[in-house]
Amino acid sequence: MLATRIRRWKSVALTTAAVLVGLTAPTLTATPAAATTTAYDSTYYKNAVGKTGTSLKSALHTIISSQTKLSYSALWDALKNTDQDPNNSSNVKLLYSGISRSKSLNGGSSGNWNREHVWAISHGDLTTSTGPGTDLHHIRPEDVAVNSTRGNKDFDNGGSSFTNSGGSLTDSDSFEPRDAVKGDVARMIFYMAVRYEGDDGFANLEVNSSVSNGSNPYIGKLAILKAWNDEDPPDAFEERRNQVIYDTYQHNRNPFIDHPEWVESIW
């Protein structure tokens, strides 16, 4: 790992049951991500460090828009590398279900894994032509049936379990990923909202507070995604993935993996 981190994560206040008459259970809160430093701050991020708000977003957009673009078919082999199970090099780790599945079982049949677009294709008509619909930073391996269950739903808390859910939940209009990857999902969504600003022939993607975005180029809910970013900081798997994409494939980074605190600064 090239990046050297200094991160202090404050504890999350936990909701507890009120057991005495007259007491109200405390509200679940998440402390915003603490500031970090990386080896890329003086090089890759040098034009962004020290900025906030729209200035930071604009600077990051310029930085990460310089990338090598992949074809949709090239994603198969790329995902076998970026999402390799650290405990079994013959397998990939599926995003929402957490299942470890053979790399060779990629495809569209039952029992296969396929290419899940975390920013759903229909939200802004991404298509699978080279561009945002093939951006490796938001595409992850997932069980075919689980991928279908998520569909193009926005993200929110709540819902019911389903086959191979791994702890993920869904209801009629939203999807909640398992706890271990909630931050991963949030940071992929925020990456897409900064990378694609409508200035390169693709839709201007934005995060909003709705779960009824349909085909509009938006995904919600903003407050929930911000909380997930704080509650589930980047782990070794996510950091390795970011590095592999940077070194081997697209040669751009997800800045919110390197600097989770930039989410709060922009949004």
Could you give the topology of this structure?
Blueprint: H1 53-64, H2 75-82, E1 84-85, E2 88-93, E3 100-102, E4 113-117, E5 139-143, H3 144-150, E6 154-155, E7 169-170, E8 174-176, H4 182-195, E9 206-207, E10 218-219, H5 222-231, H6 236-249, H7 255-258, H8 262-266
Parallel strand pairs: 6-8, 9-10
Antiparallel strand pairs: 1-2, 2-3, 4-5, 7-8
Helix pairs in contact: 4-5
Write up what this structure looks like.
This protein is an alpha/beta fold and 267 residues long. The chain has helices spanning 53-64, 75-82, 144-150, 182-195, 222-231, 236-249, 255-258, 262-266, and strands spanning 84-85, 88-93, 100-102, 113-117, 139-143, 154-155, 169-170, 174-176, 206-207, 218-219. The protein has a 3-stranded antiparallel β-sheet with strand order 1-2-3. Helix 4 crosses helix 5. It is globular and about 50 Å long.
- The proportion of residues in beta strands is 5-15%
Tell me the number of helical segments per DSSP (H or I, 4 or more residues long): 8
Helix content: 25-40%
Please, what is the average pLDDT?
91
Instruction: Please count the beta strands (DSSP E, at least 2 residues each).
Output: 10
Strand order of the largest sheet: 1-2-3
| Main beta sheet | 3 strands, antiparallel
Class from helix and strand fractions: alpha/beta
> Cα distance, first to last residue?
28 Å
Rg over C-alpha atoms, rounded to the nearest angstrom: 18 Å
- What is the helix/strand order? HHEEEEEHEEEHEEHHHH
Number of domain modules: 1
Approximate shape: globular
What are the low-pLDDT stretches, counting only 5+ consecutive residues below 50? 1-28
Protein name: Endonuclease I family protein
Signal peptide: 1-30
Biased composition (Low complexity): 157-168
Region (Disordered): 145-175
